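HOLO CASE FILE
Compound: nickel (II) ion
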Amino acid sequence: MSTDQSTKTRADAEPILSVENLRTAFYTDKEVIRAVDGVSFDIYRGETVGIVGESGSGKSVTARSIMRLIDSPGRIENGRIMFDGEDLIEKSPKQMRSIRGGSIAMVFQDPLTSLNPVYTVGNQIKEALRLHRGLSGSKATQEAIELLEAVGIPDANRRLREYPHQFSGGMRQRAVIAMALACDPELLICDEPTTALDVTIQAQILELLEELQEERDLAIMFITHDMGVIAEIADRVNVMYAGEIIENAPVVELFESPKHPYTQGLLNSIPGQGLGEDDRLSTIEGDVPTPNEDPTYCRFAPRCPKAFDQCDVVHPKPMSVGSDDTEHLAACLLYPEDISTDEAVAIHRDGNTQRGDN
Ligand SMILES: Nc1ncnc2c1ncn2[C@@H]1O[C@H](COP(=O)(O)OP(=O)(O)OP(=O)(O)O)[C@@H](O)[C@H]1O
Ligand code: NI
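Model generated. Tokens follow.
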């Protein structure tokens, strides 16, 4: 993590990605699942923004919405996804195909979903180089070798001619990252890229991503359910719960001074600080509810140790909770802290969002 750098890049630049009030819903026979329900956040060049939350909180749907990979029965219902100054929601399917794997690349949990078993790793990287950068022949081969070397795959020349099944899990994920980089993306979206790997390999991949980011000024959106991974990799963190971002803060501030009771619960459940060896976020009792109705209340209230009667009838808006100039938001009726709870509740009820005010 590198918060100083993050604050610097944020102060004097435009975000590379700006998600504004994004809403994505799935229309099932039974109900409408508001998987992403009014999500807003920014990512700047050279910055890693983490998205953390329990299973089902809407992290992957957020990523897939940005990539415009939402299929029926799902659809993006509202919002803007400004990338490099243009709204991705307005793009045609053809334009999106060239953006995907071009200026935005994605790395998933299972590298085998990104690799084709019947082609050599080299051919797949070279295909990406041909499609997105117009390279072919020995130029493409040379670039593919350099990419494998850049992601720390030894003996690149030989490994280029091997098939995915000849790679170990960690090496496979490195190959997927090489493929993602083949397109020279500006934004890399990683959805639990290290979850399936053992801890040592996981640490190596995180380190690799940080190196690549520094070299290339990459913006990274990093999805995980693991607060320990967030601490390693993120500059800024969005905490998601039931389709909403309930807290957003620079990583150090989030760990030192979490404001939302949900974030406080997540931090208490980090392995080593909590009870078990299970790395799932498991010490908050109960489950994430399915967000299947308009949030006229706090979706975390049923599990919240600090909930009071108003939490069932007033929807919390993001409030500025940072010390000094820190951009730190929490959506909880307990804030702002410096006024009475009744006054705070009134601000939330009147829909006076503070986002964008600072
Ligand atoms: N194709 C779909 N059809 C119906 N509901 C869906 C679909 N895809 C996702 N959902 C719902 O959207 C919500 C958010 O799912 P999402 O996959 O984004 O969660 P997540 O935070 O990525 O969880 P995990 O950590 O398990 O990957 C869930 O309630 C899920 O059931
Ligand atoms: Ni997911």
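CASE NOTES: The CA atoms of residues 55 and 225 lie 7 Å apart. The longest helix spans residues 199-216.
CLOSED: yes
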